């Protein structure tokens, strides 16, 4: 066994001796005072005793201390002088030593000589301290005696070395060694070192430990090197002495080579050492680090320091038991505590090192940063980043950067973070504030994966740390929620939701902090309010605690206060809060108590509480149609999202069923009579009703009651006796009804299936000749009627889309067809009703958010849209009912304010053309389609049976999903994916913009997670591929029919444009799915495999268990095959982007990268059909994107640019005005600026990425780089000279901007190459500079042109450009001087000229004296002087820049 190592301390000179003497002396001193007798004095006539007595020491016998009568220094001086001046010197010394040796033969006498002496009464006159050295220590201070006494001591040591402790309790070996510590001078240090090392080699282990740790206090500096070598050898022989040896080596002055050798030796044993020894070993390793080897040592240390396996068995169990039942200890508690103490001590050592040694913290960060493989990252890495973040404020930004990069790359995942907290929670608990600060910083990120990591930090900190830290976590989360930042609020609420589920008991203790958020409801979105009330309701009602009663009371107060408000914004909060709270109280608990049926049912008190709360909401909202509709939607969400107790469902179902019939359903045979402005007809019925037992939706009379009666119209006697019902509530109420029926009957909607095919009381909606003659009010009435009908049909489709019976499927497809037809009618009506405000369809928003967007300039191809907005709602009705008049909702305080209407009037001013209205801008006024609706995409051919009067099949009609209905579904799905799966960085709302506008119409969608959305879309991949292939075949056939003619027959037809739009939307959906960044998360890897398998199986069906790379390759080839049938440029761009997204997921994308470039080139070379609104048929941003993709993926950017600028542009110049380049049909005069901008940007980007040459490179590399720069400068020259032909303002702006950047890249990347290439390739360098000089001269002329025209957009680039040109002149001169060609540099002057070469004469004469006279001799020099002319012109640029700088200053 190894004795426990003492902590290393720097003792005072005699600590150990003092302790030993005191331990033995205290009882003796009392005895001495009481029984002091004279015969205890040593009576001896030896020279040794006499000389000591003469010098001032009286020897005592027994247990009494030796007495010192004089000061210690005086004693040593007297004895030295006595011996030195003795007549028999040096023999007297030997005699003195011999007397000492004889005297200490007695063990008691020897012990007294080793213990401290006792001062006599005159000790106060001493200038020393009250502590006296021992006799041996005093004698060792005399040089002439020291060697002999040391020899005696080492001869005496073996007598005691194998005795642990004497009978008097003293450890004699330690006492002897203590005499050698802190000597003022060692006469023969080498001999002393040799003796000690020999002693260490034979001593027992426990004494070896003490002897080794005493070495720094015994040895002089001169012996450090020798001792270090011997200790390093001893380290290899005896591993039990590792800790004391390393402790000593840390205190010695050793050579770096020796330290490195020892460190390498220790590092090799690191994985096998005991946990108790680890702190000292790590301390030595860290203290021996130098700046040159820090990274190497830390990298090796982090690889071999595997704490997870060292401490996992004990600490993991301890941490788990701590989390589950705090305060209880296991049977191995002592061992666990010991292991935990060692780990804490280890990290204290590391903390100290990284706090005070900058090189260690930097090296550790760099070592973690250099680790690329996901599997190589350890829990130690995360723990160290947290520790460095907490100890060193200067490295916080660096730590955050490393963490973000590791999180993005997937190296730091949830499992690693969880293990870090499990194993090191005691260490991390001490730095809890820093961890919370780091989490707060991560939550400010835009990357969703980083935000998730920050939220996990909060979650684990709460679960693993103590109560105080838990309060800090909740306080930090509440701060995030109250900050007003939408992303932070959502994330913090999600963390609180998880904590409520995982650790409800701890959350209840902090409920008072969460409750404080109720004061900050004003800035929260409806979805955030739902989450907050869910959290509070769970804390308040999940268990009946007395401590929860105050939360219940506060929630009831807030809800009642909000419900009674007349402002819709506050009423919305009350409705959402009340319904959410009712859902928690009424939750079905039967699953948790399945063994005892009935125990999970609600008590009568709870059931009464739920029903009274819901009735309160209903009564407070019934006066406002908007509030009522919101209540119905929230109640429907509750039923859909959570399983409610049967009693509540039964009560709700019966109430809703009856109310819906009374409000909206009437007998079809009873046509409403009244003073209506339009004839009432039952339209859009799917069955032929021959009797009066059918039903209809009473829509037009209800809408008439609202829009006309409020202005003074007459009510019928029947209407006047009934309460008013708003048609605004029709769709929400039906959704609530069908969800209630669906939940009660497990998806069976037979009870309300009559609402699928029943007609609606409307009027003729087709705008005929009377459309122009109708009043504005009548037009608005028709528009509202269509909007309400559309929303009814959308909810009907939501309700019945999952029905499996063929006749039901046919009816759903028919309703989809009706929706598309009504949308076309609505576009016509909206075109002549510019100031119209539609009725609301989504109600969980503030009133100020419901105005249509200002811009309606959307592509005409997307007109047949309808889109976004609704969720499943279900309906009722078999019985007849009379129409109910409705309340005058326009007078309600919850309706849109007049200012909103005036705003709409401004927004729609001047938009009366029929083709200018796009329903995409009205998506917020349509009910949201559920994700389940897209199961209709699976529909193939459906047989519709037509029966005769005897219910026999009379005929069979085949129905399938038609292109217009397919486009309607695809557009809605594309918008949903864009809203949910688009990265949050691109969706971040700009400052001062309304945060809710983008999410209007997607509230039901946002109640699902992004991964759930992606999973649903992957399930739809197979039918979408079927549609994609069918559309591909359609265009292939059409192309073959037209023999490849672009504008052949059928191209302008409606069907062609619908099929093209479907093609585009399908590619857009596929791109949106595969571009989702959630696929990089480990939990979604299988989903990515599933999606790729669908695409790969279309190419090679029936090949299971393929590798990811193989799936990516096959998916790429499958999608690539569609390029032959691409009908529009927009489709081409989406296909290219989709292929790029597939390529990004591959680990070897090089092979397919060239295919993307080839495909992009084909699309640029292709003639596209012209559109009605675009001059070239191609939007500028899409052309720029495709051209950039081509140049980024092509093998040679310079050759591609030269082909376009050198071949395509000259063809364009020589072609008629409206024509295009024959080689590049997409290059026209209209699109030239796009091509020019992209080529300049890619040229600058390419040369900037080229590594600067070095003199150490081979000659071949120099030649290749020089050739590359010659090509780049030639391309730059071609592009720059194009401004002489195309001198429009955008082209000149591009030239100024990217021209300067190219010159800067030339300075940094090319000039170092020319420095050492000039002598060997003189002609090539001269040619390069001569060509470049012509370009810089043209840039100088462009600067003059900009100043003359006083165009601020252009002139703002002039100063920086001229400064760069000046730097170029100086750099060329430096290059010539470096090559001993200074005389070749000739400086001249240039005149300012415009783009046409004409001299600018309007300059101030003072400015022109030095800068504007041109030396014409430059044209007469020989070729060898060509570059000198170049420098001349460039130098003049520099001189002008100096003047420009002076002016600007």
What does this structure look like?
By secondary structure, the chain is an all-alpha fold. Helices cover 59% and strands 2% of the residues. The strands form four sheets. The protein has a three-stranded mixed beta sheet with strand order 1-2-3. The chain has a two-stranded antiparallel ribbon with strand order 4-6. The longest helix is centred in the C-terminal third of the chain and has 29 residues, at 1289-1317. The two termini are 80 Å apart.
End-to-end separation in angstroms reads 80 Å
Strand content: under 5%
Q: What can be said about the biggest beta sheet?
A: 3 strands, mixed
Judging from the principal axes of the Cα atoms, what is the shape?
flat
Question: Could you report the average pLDDT, rounded to the nearest whole number?
Answer: 78
Give me the count of strands.
9
Instruction: Provide a count of the helices.
Output: 59
Strand order in the sheet with the most strands: 1-2-3
Q: C-alpha Rg, in Å?
A: 46 Å
Helix percent band = 55-70%
The low-confidence parts are 1-39, 123-128, 312-333, 592-599, 709-722, 853-915, 985-996, 1403-1449
**SS-based structural class?**
mainly alpha
